Amino acid sequence: TDPAVIRNFCIIAHIDHGKSTLADRMLQITGVVDDRSMRAQYLDRMDIERERGITIKSQAVRLPWKVGDTEYVLNMIDTPGHVDFTYEVSRSLQACEGAILLVDAAQGIEAQTLANLYLAMNADMTIIPVLNKIDLPAAQPEKYAAEIAHLIGCEPEDVLKVSGKTGVGVRELLDHVVASVPAPVGDAEAPARALIFDSVYDTYRGVITYVRVVDGHLGRRERILMMSTTAAHETLEIGVISPEPKIADRGLGVGEVGYLITGVKDVRQSRVGDTVTSVARPAAEALGGYEHPKPMVFSGLYPIDGDDYPELREALDKLQLNDAALVYEPETSAALGFGFRCGFLGLLHMEIVRERLEREFNLSLISTAPNVVYRVIMEDGKEVTVTNPSEFPTGKVDKVFEPVVKSTVLVPSEFIGAIMELCQNRRGNLQGMDYLSEDRVEIRYTMPLGEIIFDFFDQLKSRTRGYASLDYEPFGEQESELVKVDILLQGEAVDAFSAIVHKDKAYAYGVEMAKKLRELIPRQQFEVPIQAAIGARVIARENIRAIRKDVLAKCYGGDISRKRKLLEKQKEGKKRMKMVGRVEVPQEAFVAALSTE
Ligand code: GDP
Ligand code: MG
């Protein structure tokens, strides 16, 4: 294909502003999906994406579009909006020259709108501002067009207005993409260079690598080289997605977006951000890649049934083929037995990995409360990286560093006070505040990541009646006075319950945890004392009184089937229990720290 007729663009937006729905209309209007096969959020192919209504993986689709007599090729990339998947967005951007900045006409600009806009601006992309959902009665297109114009420095009239739902304005938008997004430029005669912007593992076909060709040409049955690993493979298949895979007999040329299959089984062999070149005529220099995402949040994953440990290991191995951002290593817990310490990009990523493990691999798991990574400097100068609170060194600690994020909150101005109080509470430092319009503000705080992962988002929402939106990015680390709080059951510290807490909050945390555990752990046939302690100092205690639990006592005589049901039910209830010493502890107890009131 002649690069002059190619337009590569992506859609960026805050979550739920309608990217996937707009992508649906584009699939339909360009005719690549017929009305009969159409279903909502067509490109969200994973079950979990469809159920939760969120996009996790980016998707690239090739769309034919005619303007006048010219047939253009549009490559559209749908991106995830959630903060955990920002790295997915940033890599999609590098495969495009233009970005549609989509804003819900009933909501206006939100935190991820800004975050994604800045990513696109830094990448020097052409930005097409678009208001979506103009069919909604609550839409205020004039108001928000002014907001967007103010933000990106254009005229309010330049903001296009569409409805991804009804299709209004979508044809005009595609025409506009052709007119305003620059055609890709590259050297067709140069050695091949293609950027890997995604790779996924398919059970039947192995790794499918998504690439954007920058220079030269990649063909079928060609020996190719991954420049960072120097691994060579042969392309078994090369093609484009439209929206199902279509083999491209002539391969992919300058500016084209497509996929290749080499039969490799491990996504790590096909690293996102790496450059693909040809063995016969390798490029001298790789394209600028992106940093590999670093895990920010850790948690322990344990099989409820210890016998499932080998299956859990296998499941993690397989899942990692698909999700290069997941890291894990074996760990042993005195309370929970053999399991893994896993690193995630954020809380949503964590939830999704866990859900996929349970659903796709049929495992029952216990997960411990998430924590961040601490860097501990000992008095003798030794440095320890702590990803598991129970391994926090005691004794001769000199300094402790914790990760910090720069967070941006967008709210109606009436909630400024509520936000400031919450952020201050979470050890935040006010960095600045800007009015986006008369009644909406952007508030910026730096804050320990450890404070954000404990229900910060829920608190934010509940204190602003759902109006606040949040985005954050890593912002180095800071030294803090942190201590380890242990929880003891029957006098024994339970490693899976340990948490690292700021010194000033340790007491309140201990009291709260002891109280919560008393409510969560069912009464047993013996008394269970619960204690919270810092080192040897006990800071809180509670008691679970003993009970003789006899469910059958409840049904007087007769009804056998009812008895059986009760027994079954009790068995069900036990599934999510883990024996810790002699005490039965439900899963919720291990993540009790996650909710504060
Ligand atoms: P994404 O998170 O940006 O991909 O958003 P989705 O495309 O999944 O849409 C989020 C919600 O908004 C869904 O319930 C859609 O049905 C709805 N939606 C999307 N576009 C429109 C639109 O133009 N009009 C209306 N009324 N609803 C829309
Ligand atoms: Mg989506």
Overview of the molecule:
Its EC number is 3.6.5.n1. Its main location: membrane. It is a peripheral membrane protein. By secondary structure, the protein is α+β, with helices and mostly antiparallel strands. The protein is 25% helix and 34% strand. The chain has 14 helices and 31 strands. An 8-stranded antiparallel beta sheet has the order 10-9-14-7-8-13-11-12. A hairpin with a 3-residue loop joins β7 (193-202) and β8 (206-215). The longest helix is centred in the C-terminal third of the chain and has 18 residues, at 503-520. It is globular. It starts with 5 loop residues before the first strand and ends in a 7-residue tail after the last helix.
Number of helices: 14
Q: Tell me the number of strands.
A: 31
Helix content: 10-25%
Q: Low-confidence parts lasting 5 or more residues at pLDDT below 50? A: none
Strand order in space, largest sheet: 10-9-14-7-8-13-11-12
Q: Give the mean pLDDT.
A: 87
Tell me the major beta sheet: 8 strands, antiparallel
Find the structural class using helix and strand composition: alpha+beta
| Overall 3D form | globular
Associated small molecules:
guanosine-5'-diphosphate, magnesium ion
Q: How far apart are the termini? A: 59 Å
C-alpha-based Rg, rounded: 27 Å
Tell me the β content.
25-35%
